[in-house]
């Protein structure tokens, strides 16, 4: 139990990250997400980071890795809810969310997952 | 900042509670929710408690109070994700979620909000 709830909505999973996840919580979240993708046969996931006040290099790298693993399991990831402050800091530090799309909020994220229907894009 | 993210999906808000909310976090969540209802003109809210391993009398009473206040602001509340263990404990302790509907999960909660269109029901 990572303490991070994973919700299901149609074909998609919704994850709202809590502030200050420990390294072991990140690990458990990754395991839970990868398992859940198979259980509910999800085709996409929206990861909301609006509660996070800091996105350091560990968080960024872990999110990117989770997105990559999810894609190997057949589900695409969209990271949403990056606040202006977090975006500024990430740009200053040169942190990139590799392999994931980003969108403004949950609605835009779900819309993005719905439009991206080409599996080989 | 209560640390509990409040997501918006169409006319509805989605709140996923984190385990072990402190009393002050409950207070801030209530304030944030009541404010947000007005900001986004929400007509309903789904509160997911699946991450909570314990629902004591304080949590139950606070949730009931939040639901009542939300209704006064024009938004109905559905509590979803009560686990079998939590349901058992709540029944044993005689705890009731007064004034709120409950549903199995996010999807059922949103469906319930959509069906309940009679404002005077």
Shape of chain A from CA axes? globular
- The averaged pLDDT of chain A comes out at 89
**Unreliable residue stretches of chain A:** none
The number of helical segments of chain A is 4
- Percent in helix of chain A: 40-55%
> Which secondary-structure class do the elements of chain A indicate?
alpha/beta
What strand line-up does the widest sheet of chain A have? 1-2-3-4-5
Rg calculated over all Cα atoms of chain A: 13 Å
Instruction: Name the pair of protein chains with the most residues at their interface, and give those residue counts.
Output: A-B, 22 and 22 residues
Reading the helices and strands of chain A in chain order gives: EEHEHEHEH
Proportion in β-strands of chain A: 15-25%
Keywords:
5-stranded mixed sheet, 18% strand, 4 helices, 121 residues, homodimer, alpha/beta
Question: Can you summarize this structure?
Answer:
With 121 residues, the first copy, chain A, is an alpha/beta fold.
